[in-house]
Amino acid sequence: AQALLVPQELTTVRVQDPRVQNEGSWNSYVDYKIFLHTNSKAFTAKTSCVRRRYREFVWLRRQLQKNAGLVPVPELPGKSTFFVGSTDEFVEKRRQGLQQFLEKVVQNVVLLSDSRLHLFLQSQLSVPEIEACVQGQGSRTVTDAILHYAMSNCGWAQEEESRP
Question: Which residues form the PX domain (predicted)?
Answer without folding.
Answer: 10-127
